[in-house]
């Protein structure tokens, strides 16, 4: 690594006064069954009422500023400067995003950096990404034939005639009950004290795993009292009660429809533009399950344990090839034949692979250096440990992933 690389302590951006940490931790020690109206002047609601309101809410236009913060305990990333707007920055520290949506199929998200911006724009079946640092636009779209298929599938979905479609949709109350029953299999769902997010009164749903063998301590979702739109999600690690390991929430929000000019995309003058055709899966791969039985896992994939303690294992992977960016290595991923069988799919994979040509559209990131930096050597292979997730890559081509301590994965290997 260059000696001029700016080093930043991962703790520096996360310093929390002790009294604040104690207050935050104490607020969730014994969450009440109902949301109290004290302090936020909100009527009492049960968890089922809040979930039902979210299920019943119509898609809402909005715009606002979102702050995303990751406190995963990962090593410092091998990047010379972290002053730009790079999606890789989402692995650690705080990032600011601006978001706009019309509530249907048009949206824009901009990741803001001190010296650059990275934007993603969706308009129906088309999408664009723009990096101001590279002055580069990538336009993603379906082929003409797949575009026609999308229209037919949308009509079938509206009529409830998609393969495997149950036909009748549950009521919001039924959907809420299903969510709570499934969550209740492995968790306790309660309602915390009301809070204020982006200046708006909000209820808090708290999902606490019943198991002590998971790295997830609890998940806290703040729901806007007026619109039932989620305003903030916090995921707390069982190993650290001082601050959320992951947090994404609005700091300001408006539920007015954004101007059309904001949602429309036009390439900046002088920017390079590359078109990528995105393959749509075959009709047979689009069938929906009716929920009558467990989803069949692809050959080479297995799951050990249940709920928050579950560990997923992939076997037979060409890990070295995947890290090196060899598109052919993607074929060793179980189930990959469902999505990478076409030339257009192979081309799409190539967009995200490293490139030796500085002028190409491939990622310029040294993935081998990133892999070495984020993982540590263990007798079984390489291990990535974070406050919420552990990943073990074994020397014989297996990958084990779970929201469990690293020692659990090593014992299973």
UniProtKB/TrEMBL annotation:
InterPro entries: LolA/LolB/LppX, Sporulation_related. The chain crosses the membrane at residues 12-34. Keywords: Membrane, Transmembrane, Transmembrane helix. Coiled coil: none annotated. It comes from the Bacteria. The lineage of its organism: Bacteria, Bacillati, Actinomycetota, Actinomycetes, Micrococcales. This is DUF2092 domain-containing protein.
């Amino acid at each position: 690594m260059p000696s001029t690389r700016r080093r930043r302590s991962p703790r520096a951006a996360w310093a929390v006064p002790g009294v604040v940490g104690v207050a935050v931790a104490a607020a969730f020690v014994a969450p009440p069954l109902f949301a109290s109206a004290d302090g936020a002047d909100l009527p009492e609601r049960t968890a089922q009422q809040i979930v039902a309101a979210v299920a019943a809410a119509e898609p809402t236009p909005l715009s606002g500023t979102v702050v995303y913060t990751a406190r995963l305990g990962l090593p410092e990333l091998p990047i010379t400067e972290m002053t730009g707007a790079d999606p890789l920055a989402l692995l650690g520290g705080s990032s600011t995003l601006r978001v706009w949506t019309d509530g249907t199929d048009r949206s824009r998200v901009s990741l803001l950096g001190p010296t650059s911006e990275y934007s993603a724009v969706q308009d129906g079946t088309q999408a664009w990404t723009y990096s101001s640092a590279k002055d580069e636009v990538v336009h993603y779209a379906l082929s003409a034939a797949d575009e026609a298929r999308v229209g037919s599938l949308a009509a079938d979905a509206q009529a409830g005639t998609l393969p495997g479609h149950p036909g009748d949709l549950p009521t919001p109350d039924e959907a809420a009950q299903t969510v709570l029953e499934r969550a209740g299999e492995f968790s306790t769902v309660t309602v915390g004290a009301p809070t204020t997010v982006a200046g708006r009164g909000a209820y808090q749903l708290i999902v606490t795993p019943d198991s002590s063998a998971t790295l997830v301590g609890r998940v806290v979702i703040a729901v806007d009292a007026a619109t039932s739109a989620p305003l903030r999600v916090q995921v707390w690690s069982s190993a650290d009660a001082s601050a959320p390991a992951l947090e994404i929430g609005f700091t300001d929000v408006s539920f007015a429809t954004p101007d059309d000019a904001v949602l429309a995309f036009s390439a900046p003058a002088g920017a390079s533009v590359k078109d990528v055709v995105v393959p749509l899966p075959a009709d047979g791969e689009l069938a929906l399950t009716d929920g009558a039985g467990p989803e069949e896992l692809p050959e080479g994939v297995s799951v050990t344990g249940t709920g928050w303690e579950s560990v997923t294992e992939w076997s037979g992977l060409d890990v070295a090839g995947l890290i090196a960016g060899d598109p052919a290595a993607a074929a060793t991923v179980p189930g990959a034949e469902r999505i990478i069988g076409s030339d257009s799919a192979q081309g799409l994979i190539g967009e995200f692979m490293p490139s030796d040509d500085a002028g190409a559209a491939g990622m310029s990131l040294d993935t081998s250096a990133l892999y070495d930096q984020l993982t540590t050597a263990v007798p079984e292979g390489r291990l990535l440990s974070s406050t919420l997730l552990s990943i073990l890559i074994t020397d014989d081509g297996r990958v084990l992933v779970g929201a469990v301590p690293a020692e659990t994965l090593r014992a299973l290997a």
